[in-house]
Amino acid sequence: MLLRSVFSLTIPFVALAQDLDVIPGKIYSGNETKPYLDVMDKYMSLAEVSYYFLHQGGGFSCGPACEVPTLQNVVLNTTWHSPNPVSDGFIAINPADKEIYVAWAGTRRIRSAFVDSVAIFADYPTGIAGALVHEGFYESTRAAYPYILKNIRSAAEDYPNYKIIFLGHSLGGANAVLSALMFARDNEYIKDRIRVWTFGEPRVGNRPFAEYYTQVLGNQTYRITYQADIVPHLPPWQIFGYQHHPLEIHIINKAGDFYACQNTVREDLDGAYRWPTIDTGVADHVDYFGKPDIARFDPLIEW
């Protein structure tokens, strides 16, 4: 079911370009990281807000989310909620930065991430030999996609010079990737306007899917991972054959040093996978620039 409203988040924020001009295979450290981290933080802030719309019980008042340092004059256009399978998110317009946002809410219960690691494949995209994706991620995306398609097409026509940003944290990252690919396939004439930002994204599909996604949107996607976050290690490739798509940007430490992974046919082992899965955990999954702030708000991410 789609709901509509308009309001603004009026916390001041410096307008920033969304593309990161990084060199694959390079470690960025010290003062050179700040402009890059500022852009990442901007999109993670929007991903965080998606949790709080969800938490308001179906209403549009963002409540405590309005106090989160996010963006100036971002106008909410549409929210969606699909209870079966569960998917939630919002579409918003940012006139200052000339961006349209499709923001997906992530998993609220940590145990769901572990359940999702035992995955059944679905055939997607059709017509791509051998391509398979996580069935749960696919079904939750597909449930909301007709609403997203209608509203993003309308917004893209109303704002022809705006980039279209698909984004999400955790499960929301998987939804962002799949919905961006669906939209790119259905609207190839505006594919170049798409950007994808994910944070702590689980693996979405197998190698043929990752290779196809890379051909279509790989140069327009930023997959951010942080330290020993367990979720980018799920579902495990050793058992099910899952594989991430590039471009991964792995934040190495709390100081914000990061590594721009190489766009190889396999995952760069100096990215998130530098951490053995046995050494990963949940703490870093909820600490992307201190977000989502589960200490300040009611427990949004629970066991």
Structure description:
There is one protein chain. The two termini are 27 Å apart. Strands 1, 2, 3, 4, 5, 6, 9, 10, 12, 14 and 15 form an eleven-stranded mixed β-sheet that branches. Strands 7-8 form a two-stranded antiparallel ribbon. It has one domain: 3-Layer(aba) Sandwich (Rossmann fold). With 303 residues, it is of the alpha/beta class. Strand 7 and strand 8 form a beta hairpin. The protein is 28% helix and 23% strand. It has helices spanning 34-55, 110-117, 135-158, 171-186, 207-217, 237-240, and strands spanning 2-4, 8-10, 27-28, 72-83, 86-94, 99-104, 121-123, 132-134, 163-169, 194-199, 205-206, 221-226, 242-243, 248-251, 258-260. It has six helices and 15 strands.
How would you describe this structure in keywords?
alpha/beta; Rossmann fold; 11-stranded mixed β-sheet; 15 strands; globular; disordered N terminus
In short:
The chain is an alpha/beta fold and 303 residues long. Helices cover 28% and strands 23% of the residues.
Map the helices and strands:
Elements: E1 2-4, E2 8-10, E3 27-28, H1 34-55, E4 72-83, E5 86-94, E6 99-104, H2 110-117, E7 121-123, E8 132-134, H3 135-158, E9 163-169, H4 171-186, E10 194-199, E11 205-206, H5 207-217, E12 221-226, H6 237-240, E13 242-243, E14 248-251, E15 258-260
Helix pairs in contact: 3-4
Q: Which architecture does the CATH hierarchy give at level 2?
A: 3-Layer(aba) Sandwich
> How large is the radius of gyration?
18 Å
Average of the residue pLDDT scores: 83
Give the CATH topology. Answer: Rossmann fold
Enumerate how many helices there are, as a single number.
6
Under the CATH scheme, which class?
Answer: Alpha Beta
Structural class: alpha/beta
- Major sheet size, sense and barrel closure: 11 strands, mixed
Distance between the ends: 27 Å
SSE order in H/E notation?
Answer: EEEHEEEHEEHEHEEHEHEEE
Q: Please identify which CATH superfamily we are dealing with.
A: Alpha/Beta hydrolase fold, catalytic domain
Basic shape:
globular
Helix content: 25-40%
Protein name: Fungal lipase-type domain-containing protein
Keywords: Signal
Signal peptide: 1-17
Domain Fungal lipase-type: 101-237
